[in-house]
Structure formats: C-alpha cells, structure tokens
Design a protein that fits this description.
It contains 11 helices and 10 strands. It is of the alpha/beta class. Bound molecules: flavin-adenine dinucleotide. Flavin-adenine dinucleotide binds next to strand 5, helix 5, helix 6 and strand 8.
C-alpha cells in the first residue's frame, strides 16, 4: 500500500521507522533483531536507506595503492522485499542520484515493481567521500527533481527506450526530503523552498524532513511550505540522541542545531547511558507535542537504538 494512502486513511498519527541495510558481509538476522521489538507498534511503513559506492585506496603488499570501488551497504531493494515478506509491512526504499546512471535507475525501479513495492523516497544523495561537492554519475541525475521526473515518467508508462510498445505504467508513491533548518547548500530558505516546491509540482506525494530537535523549527517549516503553496503531508523525521559525541557529530554531519536546553542537559551527563536517558526523554516530549499537533506520521530514524525508540513509542 502507498504511504499517501496510509496517511489519507488514518484516523490518528501513524508511526514509521527507518533502518539501514546490513553492512556487506553481515547477514540480515541482525536487522530482524533490530526490527522485532519495533513491530508491536504496527508501523505503517519501514524505510530502508540507500548507500552509494565509494572509491577507496587500498594498500598493496608492495606499498603502492590501488583505487577500488566498494559498497558498504548493498541490497536496499531486496532488504525491502525481505522485510515485507517477514513482517507483512509496507516498505519504502530510498533511491539516490549519486552513483547511478539513468539506465541503472530504471532497472532498479523495474525490479521494485516486480517485488511489489509501491513506494520510493527519491533523493539526490551526498557527495562521495573523496569529492568536495556532489558530482552526478556520467549519464546520471544532478538533482532529486530529475530522478523524480524519471519515476513520474515511468508512472506514465514512459521508459528510456521510447520505442517500447504497450508498456506497463508503474504506480509508485513518491516521497522527497525537506529541511526545516535548510539544506546546507541552499543559499537561503526561500530558494530551498522554491526547489522543494518544484519537486512537489513535478509529482511528489509527500515530504519527510531531516531530523530536528526543536519542534518550533518543524512548525515554522510547515508554515513556510504552506505559504509557498506546498500542500502535501510533511512527515517529521525524529532521531534519539544517545552519546556525548553526537553533540558535535550531528551538527557537522546533518547541518542541524541542538537546542541549548538539550545540549546543556547532555553536557551534565557523566556517561553515555545518562545521555541516552536524556535523549529518550527529549524524544518523548517532542513526539507527544507533534502528535498533539496532529502530524500525519512520526517517522523515527532508529539507527542502532531500537529500544530507545520502542520506549518512546510505547508511552505515546
Ligand atoms: P535535492 O532536492 O536535489 O537538493 C539538493 C540541493 O540542491 C539543495 O540545496 C536544493 O536547494 C538545491 N536544488 C534542488 N534542485 C535544484 C535545481 N533544479 N537547481 C539548483 N539547485 C537545486 N542520502 C543517501 O545517500 N541515502 C539515503 O538513504 C538518504 N536518506 C535521506 C532521507 C531523508 C529523509 C533526508 C532528509 C535525507 C536523506 N539523505 C540520504 C541525504 C540526502 O541525500 C542529502 O541531504 C542530499 O544532500 C540532498 O538530497 P535532496 O534529495 O534533498 O536533494
């Protein structure tokens, strides 16, 4: 079932989770162990992130270096199918521009269709580790809106080979990313919202936000979106804080702020177990407030801390 249908049919705020595919070489069992305690909350859908290939330099025995391509977390599409099979829950694979040609993207979409997956979250992806700025793959997309257009085309039965006859239309429900604290490359919020609106006008069904720790920022973002003529559901993305290190890692990686009240509480903590308690309480307060204000879905980035998310959702 499509995410947008879940939202339209819901009588109350829904819950969804986001997980990463296992690291290459690991089995899927650890992912199931991660998801098992969360399934009692009947998530409407589960997102699975996408991780591009990277170029790395491996040292040879003679001391020289060899450039190799590695992909640490392959298998998003099949992980989605496996989760659907095991838990009978809808899944949302992320699709990114980075590292893909348009032909590879089309093949991935065709595979998703065969697997019975109705949803995709289309994203640009970040720059590869060895690049200073995002570089599209030769023959690949530059912006999420270009990738979105390819999915919209496929939904209209338009494939890359324009001489295919009697093509089947896909029916993907399409999500896109939004940034309550602005995408870090955008010169200002207004410009960022203009490009966000472009994605909605091109056919995206809903927005999922980057994580935020101050609900006021989410509410201001929703207001600004509505004023800009963006009227689709805006799903808040939420993440637990569980270690002192995150005080610097989260702002650096995701270009977001932590409110002073939260950072002060974390600074007082002696251990990461104490930080986890603070983070859990903060997430619960955030979640309760968002639910009270009628958000369509509470979307949790579970990232290795399913018990924290479970403790929060249990109390809602
Ligand atoms: P875009 O919408 O393409 O925007 C990128 C930048 O370009 C913005 O600054 C925007 O303002 C600007 N822009 C957009 N269109 C145009 C245009 N036509 N002309 C000029 N400027 C333009 N990354 C992964 O690698 N894998 C994942 O699974 C993943 N999941 C994510 C899930 C969520 C909910 C979020 C919020 C992010 C996720 N990311 C993921 C990270 C994401 O790929 C990065 O934030 C990336 O830098 C931007 O992606 P986007 O889809 O927002 O890009």
């Amino acid at each position: 079932m499509k995410v947008i249908d879940h939202i339209n049919q819901a009588k109350d705020t829904l819950v969804s989770f986001e997980v990463l595919p296992p690291l290459k070489g690991k089995g899927i069992e650890a992912l199931y162990k991660h998801l098992d305690p969360l399934m009692e909350f009947k998530p409407s859908f589960i997102n699975v992130t996408y991780h591009r290939s990277e170029h790395v330099f491996k040292k040879r025995t003679d001391g020289s270096f060899e450039k190799v391509i590695i992909r640490k977390r392959p298998g998003t599409e099949s992980i989605c199918a496996a989760i659907m099979n095991k838990y009978n829950v809808d899944t949302v694979p992320h699709l990114i521009c980075g590292g893909f040609s348009v032909n590879e993207t089309e093949d991935a979409l065709i595979n998703l269709r065969y697997l019975g997956i109705d949803n995709v979250l289309v994203l640009r992806g970040d720059a590869a580790k060895n690049e200073t700025a995002f570089e599209p793959e030769p023959g690949g997309h530059k912006y999420a809106s270009d990738l979105l257009q390819q999915v919209v085309n496929l939904n209209a039965g338009i494939y890359l080979e324009d001489d295919l006859k009697g093509t089947q239309k896909t029916e993907f429900c399409i999500g896109v990313a939004g940034y309550p604290e602005k995408h870090f490359e955008a010169p200002n919020m207004e410009t960022d919202l203009r490009y966000l609106k472009q994605k909605i006008d091109a056919g995206a069904d809903y927005i999922v936000t980057q994580m935020f720790f101050d609900n006021a920022k989410y509410y201001a973002f929703v207001k600004a979106c509505r004023e800009a003529g963006i009227n689709v559901p805006i799903i808040p993305g939420l993440k637990p804080v569980y270690s002192k290190k995150q005080l610097t890692v989260l702002p650096k990686t995701f270009h977001i702020d932590l409110p002073t009240d939260l950072s002060n509480e974390i600074l007082k903590c002696k251990t990461d177990e104490d930080v986890e308690k603070v983070g859990q309480e903060w997430l619960l307060t955030q979640s309760r407030d968002l639910k009270k204000n009628g958000v369509p879905v509470l979307h949790y980035y579970t990232l290795g801390k399913p018990h924290v998310v479970a403790n929060v959702v249990k109390q809602l």
